Amino acid sequence: MSRVFFISSNTTTDPYPVYPLGMAVVAGAVQKAGHQVQQYDPLAQGESLPQLLEQIRVFAPDLLAISLRNIDNVDSFSGDDGWYLQKIKDFIAGIRQEVRVPIVVGGPALTILPEEIADYLGVDHAIIGEGELSLPQLVADLEAGKEVPRLIQRNQPLPGDEFSSPLYDQDLVGFYLQQSGMVNLQTKRGCPHRCSYCSYPHLEGYHFRFRDPRLVVDELEKLKREHGAERVFFTDSVFNDPQKKYLDLVEEMLSRDLGMQWSAFFRPQGLNREELALMKRAGLYALELGTDAGSDQTLAGLDKHLSFAEIIEVNQACLDEQLPAAHFVMFGGPDEDDASVAESLKNMAQLGQSVVFAFSGIRIHPDAPLHQRAIADGLVSADTSLLKPVYYFSPLLDRKKMEKTIEEDFAKQRNRIFPPSKGMERMAVMKGFGFCGLMWDRLVRFPRKEAV
Fold first, then answer.
1. In a domain, 378, yes or no
2. What does the alpha-carbon distance between residue 61 and residue 220 come to, in Å, rounded to a whole number?
3. Is residue 220 part of a domain?
4. Do 319 and 354 form a contact (C-beta atoms < 8 A)?
5. Residues 285 and 207 grouped into a single domain
6. Which of 26, 157, 184, 253 has a CB 3.0–4.6 Å from the CB of 21, allowing a cystine?
7. What is the DSSP string of 393-412?
8. Domain check: are 115 and 252 in the same one?
């Protein structure tokens, strides 16, 4: 039996603190394989390096496993402040001075740029893709004295029902329930939609891998019973799959009368009012919509394969059911020009009470089709490093003019957020009043229903 000390490297709280689900999932797999584990989260337990080193010393691990959630905050306004790897590199260097055991990193950020990140951070091993099989195997190989490569290639994708159950830590859960009012859970992995900018298919595969709804609801019941969780966010790339298997999960939640509230990421297509009403009865209280662009021209440029008319239809269904919805929209993508910016702003006005978060430019990831488009448009070359954020801006427009136009338009409404820092400022105010959770849902004001 080996001893594995897990560390979550995420220290950002924007837009709110997020439970380190990836660390919990892999820690659960390593514990199930018969090893002893301990989890450390600097958000919940403190960013003090001496405090962390003391916990490592007491635990005396054979291996340190560091989870990398994000490379940066994908906000073009942030500059180096929004790039996380320098801080993580310094963190690892501080650990190296006191701890001599091997260090392995993994997680979605690592999988996007595995070799570059492993080199930059100076770690012993890096696990590409899912860690539920790879990390227990690495532990076993090190225990047996075998030689292990630095880059550990990904395994075949796990079937949904073979995903590891998260090993939730009560102290960590308590912190997140206090700070954000919710914890996270995943019901499936993968994404078939192939949007040109997105890294999800590269990370999780091009097909959905579903978990049995009964297993998911078992874990929800356990979260409520053992940890007192009343709210959960489903971290699926897209909750509403085209096959509508998500409704099986909704029905399972209803049949067990969970009494939990939940939210998730949704694709704004094919959602009708009847389905939303069903999900609302099962505890859905807000939707985060991957709208991504504001006109048919720019939706096509991102390979979204949906129209803005469909987005408006889904948005209206949310309004009719009095479900707060937030649209996340990126300006400046492929084929964006002055005319499409103006059209997008007119389209945004049709979303009414729903919230719109706007971003300027699109973070370019390797293995995403947008990377090839950026090369073809002469914005980057094939050998341009993407370790630090590089953003796509359509060569058909002037960035500063576009940003000024959006800011002037959005300034008229409290539920239109641009630049992203404006949202952080508003959330900070709400936190000051004792609110927690998504918080953007409090920007949506529905008329009171008259008593019957």
1. yes
2. 31
3. yes
4. yes
5. yes
6. 184
7. --TTS-HHHHHHHHHHHHTT
8. no
Which CATH number characterizes residue 83's domain?
A: 3.40.50.280
What are the beta bridge partners of residue 65? 6, 104
Domain boundary among 131, 152, 173: 152
- Rounded CA-CA distance 67/52 in Å is 15
Question: pTM of the prediction?
Answer: 0.95
- Beta strand spans in 9-93 (E): 36-40, 63-67
> Using CA atoms, how far apart are residues 65 and 135, in angstroms rounded to an integer?
9
- Residue 335: phi and psi, rounded to 5, are 75, 5
Cα 154 from Cα 112, distance rounded (Å): 12
Q: What angle do CA 44, 69, 377 make, to 5 degrees?
A: 145
The upper half-sphere exposure of residue 394, i.e. CA atoms within 13 Å in the direction of its Cβ, equals 23
Q: Which amino acid is at 192?
A: P
- 10-residue mean pLDDT profile of the chain (452 residues): values are 97 89 98 98 95 97 97 94 95 95 97 98 98 98 96 95 96 94 97 95 95 98 97 98 97 96 98 98 98 98 97 98 98 98 98 97 95 97 97 98 98 92 76 76 82 48
Q: What is the pLDDT of residue 97?
A: 94
Question: Which residue shows structure tokens 């356990």?
Answer: 222
Verify that 146 and 220 share a domain, yes or no: no
Asked, for residue 83, whether it belongs to a domain, the answer is yes
Decide if 106 contacts 68 (C-beta within 8 A): yes
Distances (CA, A) of 352 to 130, 318, 323: 40, 11, 13
350 and 252 in a common domain:
yes
Q: Which of 308, 433, 421 is nearest to 73 (CA)?
A: 421
288 lies in the same domain as 191: yes
pLDDT at 16: 82
Contact present, 341 and 333 (Cβ < 8 Å): no
Does one domain contain both 143 and 256? no
Regarding whether 119 and 221 lie in a shared domain, the answer is no
Contact between 234 and 280 under an 8 Å Cβ cutoff? The reply is no
**Alpha-carbon distances of 14 from 73, 125, 362, rounded to whole Å:** 9, 29, 18
**Is the backbone of residue 129 left (phi > 0), alpha (psi -120 to 50) or beta?**
left
Q: How far is CA 310 from CA 152, 296, 330, 386, 428, in A?
A: 42, 10, 18, 34, 33
Residue numbers of the domain that contains 119: 3-152
CATH of the domain at 428: 3.20.20.70
Is residue 159 assigned to a domain? no
Quote the number of domains for the chain: 2
* Pair of tokens at residue 202: 């590269």
